[in-house]
Give the backbone structure.
Amino acid sequence: MSESETAPKQWVLEPENEYRFELEAGSSCAIMLLRGRAEVFGAEMVEGKPYFSVFLSPTHVFGQPSTEYVSEETPMTAYGNLHLAFEQMRVRALGKLRGSPAPEGQLDPQTDPPRVLILGPENSGKTTVCKILVNYAVRSGQGWAPLLVNVDPSEGGWAVPGALSAAAVAGPIGTCSPSNPFGSAATSAPTTLASNSLLPLAYWYGHEDTKRNSVLMDRLTRNLGVHINDRLEKDQEGQAAGLIVDTPSSFASGPASTTEHRQKLIKACIDAFKINVVLVVGHEKLNVEMHRTYGSRLTVVKIPKSGGVVELDHSYAERVHSYQIHAYFYGDVITPPAGVKSATQGGETLTDLTLAPSSTVVNFSDLTIYRIGAETMAPSSALPIGAARVVSEIQPVLVDPSQPGSGLLNAVLAILAPFNADENERYDEEILDLNVIGFVVVTNLDIALKKMTILSPSQGSLAGKTALIGSYEWQE
Ligand SMILES: Nc1ncnc2c1ncn2[C@@H]1O[C@H](COP(=O)(O)OP(=O)(O)OP(=O)(O)O)[C@@H](O)[C@H]1O
């Protein structure tokens, strides 16, 4: 690389301007705010501190973005106004929960905290809107820790792709790499526990496409909701901070044949998370549909899509999935561009982010593995009227590792929390309601010796010794 390519570049930005850039795969850049105030997707930048692969008033950019420009047109005013409205809802909700009288002149104040569902088509910037709104909430100085819920199984959130998850976010979410769009979690290794990491709750769906098993999607969404509501019952501040739900693009658009599926999953979210505000990102038809269906009982708002959102194709998504799984085991360390000595990545010092997974040989009998839903299912239309297909869609099917074609080699497995210790509390479908405590990948199968090699974030416990397989695979 020549000198000029690595020399930092300086940008002077006017108020409310946005510096945007794209990076080639495998490259990195760092940004430093020299003077003034700026934010990266809602997270405030500190002057004089280099940040990785991120944004905004006079900034120095180290490294070489493949595309970069400054935009004067952004939807940030609309997003800021939304935040102000949500902030008022939080303050009123907390007042109500603590028993303060209603403000004078307001006989019937709205005292529900914001419980927001964000819908939009592919590449509309849904995840970014969630991040901005959460970052504004945690930055307001009120000590809010809103719940960020991810029901997009292709996103990965804090876990690996295939999971549905939720975490209370108390500190700003940084933006440094596509492998952790919601900040780094404490699930993969104890090293990150010391810093600003999140403890998410996750359930395993196991597939990228929500249509593949919508009965399971529905069930897991409702499980997340039950868990969240139980948890918030005893936590007034948590309740008042509200929650923000990121959804997959398949909830917003698709062929007419999928309308029923979409509507069912949107309803599952609205019920499970007691949604009171639906935000539709730049999609007129969906906005009308949501108004018609829910307008009488909750607030539906159409918000503008940012011109900065980048159209990402399926091959990019596949690369990100593989990168996310790699980062789950090995950590997510970005090599700083030339000229940058110290930097943080999402608030973490770089050494904290290197993980050392372990490779262990276990007996087939050490782990009981299930696949949810029979592999071959007749389409609903082929079933007799009234026949319950549901049974086969959420039926746990035992996977036999000694059978050729078990699909276990290179499979990502979700290790489940133990079953209820009290035999009397056990029930048939309990496996569907167990949350995930970690993930492993099967890297080798020895059928003759009945042993398999698994890669796991740390040595030892496979907790309840029950795992679920989905359709995600990963190879070094
Ligand atoms: N204002 C902006 N400036 C530059 N890049 C942006 C901006 N807003 C979003 N992006 C980028 O655009 C990409 C897509 O955004 P995002 O992931 O928020 O969309 P999405 O609707 O959630 O996508 P999906 O359909 O995959 O769920 C991301 O890489 C994000 O960083």
